[in-house]
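Query structure, 350 tokens:
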């Protein structure tokens, strides 16, 4: 067959040259449904239906009649027209932090639309004999907004040898679900792709391609992704941070690690725990970022307040050393110079 007729056939189906058989069949079903004389009474419908069918037959069945030297050139020009296996299929693989780090066995539920088996994707089934149209009860007319109009279901005939497919409710598609057991190896970083050979959705009669599962992290109540690093926020009583008490930090896997924070830490501080974070492309695991978040006591009792007063009294008189920022603020805005040894020193007013 001449290359030009194949090109025309692709264009009649609204496809780019080289479309795979599944795409050709899908386009044919869609167009054939639209232009079928039983469904479309327009003057050009019959001719368009004939063109679409001829294009489908040529591309799928090879057209039969005209073979010759052009055939060879045509096949060489379109090597993609006959792939040896179906396309790969990409899906997201949602993992918890622990599953990504330590691996897991997952049962994936993959659903995607497939042409309905009952009606071959057309949404219509052919009845053994014509039947009175249920929509217009055989009259060929239905009540429209401005009086009686032609019944679209039977094309005004009042009877039809076709009916909407019950299996897919006329949509031509059904959502096919399949379950797949996948062993997720340890060391999945976000974006890492797991290739499961030969498990893509089959297309036509071709051997299926590979299923590509792209790792994504599920939201976690404790661990968060900050850029590429795993982060955990740990609230710590301010006085424990100031005194330098060891802090217990949760790490992935349900364990904890004891972290020493240098005494005198009063602001939010980030430490890194090497080897406790997410898997790295280069192997091993990255650092877990630990954000120590100072928290202040609430609902203080009398004894707590007395203890705080004693602390305040113990620190009093050394503001210049203990609170340099406060001392500078007071000097700038209140005209106070830092107090020393409890001796008041104040600029004279006026
Ligand atoms: Zn009807
Ligand atoms: Zn169906």
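Result returned for the query:
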């Amino acid at each position: 067959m001449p290359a030009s007729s194949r090109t025309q056939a692709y264009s009649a189906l609204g496809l780019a040259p080289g479309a795979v058989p599944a795409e050709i069949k899908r386009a044919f079903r869609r167009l054939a449904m639209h232009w079928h004389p039983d469904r479309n009474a327009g003057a050009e419908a019959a001719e368009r239906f004939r063109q679409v069918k001829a294009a489908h037959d040529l591309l799928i069945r090879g057209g039969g009649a005209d073979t010759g030297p052009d055939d060879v050139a045509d096949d060489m020009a379109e090597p993609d027209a006959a792939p040896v296996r179906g396309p790969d299929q990409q899906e997201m693989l949602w993992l918890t932090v622990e599953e990504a780090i330590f691996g897991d066995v997952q049962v994936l539920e993959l659903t995607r639309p497939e042409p309905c088996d009952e009606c071959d994707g057309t949404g219509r089934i052919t009845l053994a004999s014509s039947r009175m149209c249920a929509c217009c009860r055989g009259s060929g007319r239905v009540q429209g907004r401005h009086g009686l109009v032609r019944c679209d279901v039977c094309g005004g005939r009042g009877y039809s040898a076709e009916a909407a497919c019950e299996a897919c409710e006329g949509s031509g598609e059904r959502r096919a679900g399949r379950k797949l057991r996948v062993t997720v190896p340890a060391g999945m970083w976000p974006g890492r792709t797991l290739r499961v050979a030969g498990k893509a959705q089959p297309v036509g009669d071709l051997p299926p391609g590979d299923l590509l599962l792209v790792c994504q992290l599920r939201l976690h109540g404790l661990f968060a992704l900050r850029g590429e690093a795993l982060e955990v926020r740990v609230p710590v009583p301010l006085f424990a941070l100031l005194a330098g008490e060891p802090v217990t930090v949760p790490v992935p896997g349900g364990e904890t690690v004891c972290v020493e924070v240098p005494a005198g830490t009063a602001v939010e501080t980030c430490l890194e725990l090497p080897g406790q974070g997410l898997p790295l492309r280069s192997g091993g695991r990255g650092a877990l970022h630990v954000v120590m978040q100072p928290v202040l006591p609430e609902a203080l009792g009398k004894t707590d307040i007395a203890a705080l007063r004693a602390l305040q009294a113990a620190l009093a008189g050394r503001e210049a050393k203990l609170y340099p920022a406060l001392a500078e603020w007071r000097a700038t805005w209140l005209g106070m110079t830092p107090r020393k040894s409890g001796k008041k020193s104040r600029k004279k007013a006026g």
